[in-house]
Amino acid sequence: MPLNPHIEWRDGQPYASEFQDVYFSTDHGLQETEYVFLQGNALTHRWQNLAHQTFTIAETGFGTGLNFLCAAKLWLELAPKNAHLHFISTEKYPLSQADITQALALWPELSLISRPFLAKYTHAVQSGTPLMLFESRIKLTLLIGDATLGLQTLNLNQTRVDAWFLDGFSPAKNPDMWQPALFAQIAALSNTQSTFATFTSAGDVRRGLVAAGFAVQKKTGFGKKREMLTGSLIRHTGDTYDT
Length: 243
Prior knowledge:
The chain has helices spanning about 30-40, 45-50, 65-80, 95-105, 110-125, 145-150, 180-190, 205-210; strands spanning about 5-10, 15, 20, 55-60, 85-90, 130-135, 140-145, 160-165, 190-200, 215-220, 225-235. The protein is an alpha/beta fold. It has a single domain (about 5-235), classed as 3-Layer(aba) Sandwich (Rossmann fold). The strands form two sheets. The protein has an eight-stranded mixed sheet with strand order 6-7-5-4-8-9-11-10, sandwiched between helices. A three-stranded antiparallel sheet has the order 1-2-3, with no helix packed on it. The termini are far apart.
C-alpha cells in the first residue's frame, strides 16, 4: 500500500511536513496552475487548434490533483468532443481520500470536475487502474511511487507526451526527484512538439533539461516567485547536433 504524507493544515491550506513545503501557492493556487502550467505550455492555443485527436500531458507530482482538474476543465471547454486527453501523473506519497477532498474543497468553482474524480480517486490509487472520466474524453493514469521509476514503466512505443507539468516540491527540499535520470526519461517520452513548464528556475533543473535536449527559457514567475522555466524539446538524448 502506498504511504500517505503527513499533512498539516495551515490557514486552511495543506502543507507537507516531510518536505517543509506547500502544495500550491498561498497567494492563489488556482491562478498559479493556470499561469505556470496551462499558459506555460500554451494549452489554450494548442487545444483551439488541435491537430490530432489525442493529446498527452505528463506530470511529476500529482499532489492535490489541482493541476489535473484545471487542465481537465480547459480541455472540456476547448477541445473537440471527439478528442481525448490522456493525463499521466506520478506521486510518491498520494494524499488520503479525506485530505484530497478537503484540499479541493478550497476550489468550489471546480466542483463539477472534482466530484467525479474524487468518487474514483481511492480506487485509482490502490489499484493502479486508469480512470476514464467525462464520457471517456479524459483518461487519468496515476503512477504511484518514485517519479523516474514510474515514468520508466511507460511504453515508449505507445506513449508520447505533448506537454509536461514539472511540479512536485522545490528542488532544494526534494532533491531525490530532480535528478538527471528523470530529465533523460522526460526527453525519451517526449515527441517532436513537446513543451514543458515548471514553477522553479533552479539552476540544476535548467541545466538538467538542457542536457536532456530541451531549449529552456526563463519567464516571470507567479506571485512571490521571481522566475519560472518553460521550453520545448529540440533534440532527443543521443542525437547529434551543432553547438
